Amino acid sequence: MKQNNSVNDFILLGLTQDPVRQKMVFVIFFIFYVGTVVGNLLIIVTIKSNQTLETPMYFFLFYLSLADSCFSTSTAPRLIVNALSATTIISYNECMTQVFALHLFGCMEIFVLILMAMDRYVAICKPLHYPTIMSRKVCIILIVLAWIGSFIHSIAQIILALRLPFCGPNLIDHYCCDLQPLLKLACMDTYLINLLLVSNSGAICSSSFVILMTSYIVILHSLRNHSAEGRNKALSTCTSHIIVVILFFGPCIFIYTCPPTTLPMDKMVAVFYTIGTPFLNPLIYTLRNSQVKNAMRKLWHIKITSGTKK
Fold it and tell me: What does UniProt give as the signal peptide span (predicted)?
């Protein structure tokens, strides 16, 4: 990566400089990260190994779990390692790579959530046309477009980051590299770049949140014409999705629509949507979904049975 500056590396200040609190950060986020990876991998394996889950909703859930795992991995390992390290240096190239990965998988999560809302809308509001509209071929095309859109968004972010000149200091008051904390270190007027950041990341988060909430309001309104059993099942599914949308987009909108300030709350909000939400998603989708829980039980039973026979 071409450097437009005299800085070869950065120092991440992390969440705290207190040694005792750093140990707490290590323990807490190690548990969160392991839980995120294990939980999402369990969902991925369950969906891939169970034929009853070969529907568009679980097809998209598979990619949401994949995006969650990668999104958390783009930030959590560095935070965990730095909590116990004497030096918290991150190279320029690694920092730019983290910016790219953070936005690639974060944007992918946004697009998958939109696709899941679209799937529920078609299933509930247009049930007779559902098999045609949400065919396997259509789902694959939508996921490919989501990956392409995420890649384009990440390229735009990395171009903005690479154009920033740094001449010192190199202290990033954050636990990861992102455009917002990097803007504070740039040796230039960053008003225009911050405006581009808000119009890109901020607009994607805000508009996606409005689209998602509007779609779920329409879905919930249409449920009045369904039977009690169908209404309860749809409500359970939609409630899970709405919880995920609020937990993810609330902090995301706060971060990318505000000016680049140095507030301790900014880091905690960022932690919530980069590490907290990917950890909660598997719990929300499994604890509130009997079909996934039953599939997991069958998978676990098969593994135990095969292990006993050996």
Answer: none
